Amino acid sequence: MADNGDFDRAASSCQAYLQAQGPSARALYLLGLIEGAKGRNELAEDYFRKALYLQPQHEETLMHLALLLETRGDAAAGRVLRLRAQRSRRTAG
Questions:
Q1: DSSP letter at 25?
Q2: How far apart are CA 45 and CA 48, in angstroms?
Q3: Pairwise CA distance, residues 24 & 1, whole Å
């Protein structure tokens, strides 16, 4: 749905999933992507942080949050998250 530009329906599906199944790093990550695509970066950041709370080494979330932080001028925080993602990739592989 989100890939086709139907962000509202995609977000509603993620919210429904969370309500039915409980906390999910993947669903929160997807909500972060959707909100970022809608230009709502603060909300996207909140969702990414919640996803990382549930799954601290979720590589895609780490990279997207790093990009958001770097875009708003926090290069140091972005660098830390990128390093975490690299470490996560090494331990997973």
A1: H
A2: 5
A3: 19
Q: State the DSSP code for 23.
A: -
> What whole-number distance in Å separates Cα of residue 56 and Cα of residue 14?
20
| Residues 2-45 pLDDT 10s | 555 556 888 999 999 999 999 999 999 999 999 999 899 999 99
Closest CA to 48 of 15, 20, 56, 37: 56
Tell me the one-letter amino acid at 23. Answer: P
Site of tokens 């906390």: 23
| Rounded-to-5 percentages of helix, strand, coil across the chain | 80, 0, 20
Average pLDDT over residues 61-67: 95
Q: In whole angstroms, what separates CA 33 from the centre of its chain?
A: 6
Residue 91 CA to residue 17 CA, distance in Å, equals: 30
Please indicate, yes or no, whether the overall pTM of this predicted structure exceeds 0.85.
yes
What phi-psi label fits residue 6: left (phi over 0), alpha (psi between -120 and 50 degrees) or beta? beta
